[in-house]
């Protein structure tokens, strides 16, 4: 078997065109599969993390029946639902220079530590009029657009002061946090709020009937858990399309590897016949084809993993923009290295190779003496 393996390796090296085609076929499929898996898993992790972080420890929310409602309802909520610490929130989007989409969230930090429960924050800065907090990378982008060369922690931008620093890395990228009044000014929604966050416990459940009686159709009670479930359901189709694309790439690889392996077998039919004549077992010839395919698969998988990593880095911003435009999330997803994703891509590369080699291996084993 060792002599057959050495002869097989020599044949591959003497036919670089066929070998290269097989390697590129595997590398193409593995690269797309790796890129999509890394992007998908990173997007899911960051998407879920950002949503849960922005929700904080709120368990429910009162949402307006018509998008926004008057902030005077906050006083009503505090009287009717005092045990649940009602906290007003205003959310909206701004389109900045170069079509950069910014997610603006305004809180009343004194209603409940709604922001401080999410991460460290300077209360004095937060309640300062016309001041917003941002992730350092978001601030860096805004500084560049404003023509500011130096990376500073507090700078003016379109009438507001953008504050950043290491303590604000927990804020999702492309998101601005502000005091409620500042957010109302930025979004041109004076006196309006998007929702009222509520905090239920096992000892103090929220009475839905009280909400219906007090707000009389103006607002409805929604569980934050159900909001997260709805977001998961909406994004499921998006990620399913990515999965389908990765499967299509692997299918294309199967055809490319199959053509390469078949051609290599056809080229050596006479040799296989002589080997059968001198006593080579059919199983050995089949294993020889799988051995050749494994050599090509190993090289193609390694190249595909590297190309997939590079491709994922290039496509990450496009996926983030899609999530922002269609699913209301403005964070720039960070590509997270996961050994399990790379292991899955490696396994997929070898499986594709072996599956594509089954028919050529059978043909080689059936070669008559």
Description:
The protein is of the alpha+beta class. The protein has 11 helices and 11 strands. The strands form 2 sheets. A 9-stranded mixed β-sheet has the order 6-7-5-8-4-3-10-1-11. Strands 2-9 form a two-stranded antiparallel ribbon. A hairpin with a 5-residue loop joins strand 3 and strand 4. Helix 10 runs antiparallel to helix 11. The chain is elongated. The mean pLDDT is 77.
Task: Provide a compact summary of the structure.
The chain has helices at residues 2-14, 16-55, 73-80, 123-126, 136-145, 180-186, 208-215, 224-267, 269-277, 282-327, 339-365; strands at 60-64, 69-70, 87-95, 101-107, 131-134, 154-157, 160-163, 175-179, 192-193, 195-198, 219-223. The protein is an alpha+beta fold and 369 residues long.
Detail the poorly predicted runs: none
Number of helices: 11
Rounded to the nearest angstrom, the radius of gyration is: 29 Å
Tell me the strand order in the biggest sheet.
6-7-5-8-4-3-10-1-11
Which structural category fits the helices and strands? alpha+beta
Please report which band the strand proportion falls in: under 5%, 5-15%, 15-25%, 25-35%, 35-45% or over 45%. Answer: 5-15%
Largest sheet: 9 strands, mixed
How many individual β-strands?
Answer: 11
Overall residue-averaged pLDDT value: 77
As a percent range, the share of helical residues equals: 55-70%
List the secondary-structure elements in sequence, H or E. Answer: HHEEHEEHEHEEEHEEHEHHHH
Q: Give the N-terminus to C-terminus distance in angstroms.
A: 18 Å
